[in-house]
Structures are given as structure tokens and as C-alpha cells.
Amino acid sequence: MKVSVLVPALLGLAASVQAVNIEYTTVKGFFLQDETSTDPSTFDYTAVNFGLINRTYPTDHLLKHLSDYNTLTQWERFYHQVRELNEWSPRDVEYKVLFLGRHGEGWHNAAESYYGTPAWNCYWAELNGNSSATWFDASLTNNGIAQALTAHTFWQKEIDEQRIHTPDNYFVSPLLRTLQTANLTFTGLSLPKGSAAFNPTIKELFREGISIHTCDHRHNRSTIHSLFPSWPIEPGFSEEDELWNGVTAETSDAQDARSAKALGEVFFTSASSKKDMFVSVTSHSGEISSILRVIGHRAFSLNTGAIIPVLIRAKKQGDQHATTSSVPWTVSAHCTVPPVTSASACVCPSSAAPVTTLLSA
Prior knowledge:
This protein is 25% helix and 18% strand. With 361 residues, the chain is of the alpha/beta class. Helix 5 (176-186) links the parallel strand 5 and strand 6 (201-202). Helix 4 packs parallel to helix 5 (176-186) and helix 7 (252-264) packs across helix 8. InterPro entries: His_Pase_superF_clade-1, His_PPase_superfam, PGM_Phosphatase. It comes from Penicillium chermesinum.
């Protein structure tokens, strides 16, 4: 029996999301990842200076009086350009550079490759693991650890050679693979004098798209705190995961509403918010894709462990009150026993009817 897992039926279920009325725009012309000619599948952020385009800026002339002008790096001149954009923008406009980092390879990624995507989606992903691996709130594989350490090495190279301005704020998804990736990427870097310390805020709304897969089910707050006790967890973070239930899943529209709310809690946060121009968000492929949709960026898939910066213009709209949107969620039918697989679809054995209930691992 064929099971449709990619186009599930809509139910009368919805998530209510409050968001400040902000319009986001990608400011193009600064990064290769903004250009349609850049192929995401072959993009290597470590080979192209995070994708920063080698170009002049309108504000370069303001720096020519400096004695070391001829030795300023591309990132130093870019930082000045963003600072000037903020200084000359009205109060209701902010510019920030978001460093969107995808976690390194997790055990769920390895399992999907092993079983194949159709079988993974409609059976194996609903379990906590198999006899050799656990993918409930998946941790990093050895390859994923290596990818995060590659990011660490590259950040240090950019600090030493490009004198890049390191993030003023750090945020990380609460799922284990992102927590581990952020820790390996940023802990122990030799940061420039005066830089913000790496002390990331664990933020619920930057998590992966919430599906019925157990890899999207986070550990409880107490466990997360015990693993990273010095990292602040945002106010209101629940002990149990109240968003995942193994039965219903976010639609893209629901996730985009969540991403917009998350971004609204990064922009316009204080009177000095314009000074916190560089922001790191360690997250997931699906959530980064959602953020890119919200800010009007072209689709750009990241390999595990990859990082892209984007320059964002945020403008508050006329109504400054928070708005509430209600977006339907979905259910997905899945098999109760290992499926018969094919390259393009998942098929349950004839004796096994698909279900829309939580599977026991």
C-alpha cells in the first residue's frame, strides 16, 4: 500500500504565533550566495571567504584618511559599510549580518542515507533508533564532529587573516546536534580584543522544522542545562518539549511564522540593538531554509556543517503591536513495520496498514 508522506492531509490543527510586524529584506550584492549563478551544491564557504564578494563599497572613501587604509581587509571594509548603513538609517530600520550555520552530520542524517529517504520518512524516522545508533534528538557522528571542527579552524583563520568582526550575539537551537556544533565551532577561539564572548542563548524557535521524526524531539530543559550549564536558556523555555508530539507536523507556512517570530526577537531588542550587527545562529537545514524564505533570500541548501552569512534589512511596519497568526499543522501516514522501498516512494507491506499515531520505539 502506497503511503503519501510528502503531501499529508490538512487537519483543523494550528499553531498560534505572535510576531512583531517587521518587514525583512535581503540586501544583495555582498555575498556569492545571494547570486543566482552560485550553485549551492558546490559552494564551499571555507574556499571563498564565507562568500564575501571582493568589491569596493560606497563607504570606502570614508576610510581613506586612515594610515592603514591600504591594509584593511575585505571584512573590515564590509563591517564599516554595515555600520554606516545602521548609523544613517531611520530608527525603525536595522541592518544585521546573520551567520546561518547548519549543524554537522548527525546520526539521523547517516540513518536516512542508509535506509533511503522514502523508507526513512515513513517508518525508521518515527523510531528512536536501531540496534547500532540512536537518532532521537540526534547527536553528531564522527564526521559531524569533524565538520564542526573545520568551521572552528576556518573562523580562527578569518579572525587572524581577515580580522573579521566576530558575532555580537550567538543563538543556538535546543537540539543536541546544534548545541554540539556550536560548542565545537566557537569554544576556544582566540577572539579579537573587545569581542563579545561566546555565550550562546539557547532559543526554542530556531529549532528544526517540527515533524513526526524523533530527531526533531528535543531533550528536556534539565538535560540540556546539565550538558551546557553555563549557556543561558531563554525565558519561558519549557521543561518538556511541548511542540513535538510525533503525530502532527508543521507546514512550511507554520514554520515560516515561527521563524519570523524568532527573527523579531533578534532585531529591535534594545536601544543599542543597531550596534549588535553580527549575529550567529546555529540551526538546521529546514530552519535555515525557512529563515531565507522569510527574509526574501533565494533558496540555498547548506551541506551539513556549512555556514553562510546574509545581510538583512529589517523595517518595523506601522502597527507595532504583536500580531497573532494561526497556521494549520498536518499529520503524515506512516508504516508500522519496515516498508517495502523504492527510489521515489514508500510502500508498506500489504498486511500493514498505515497509521497516523505515535509509533513506540
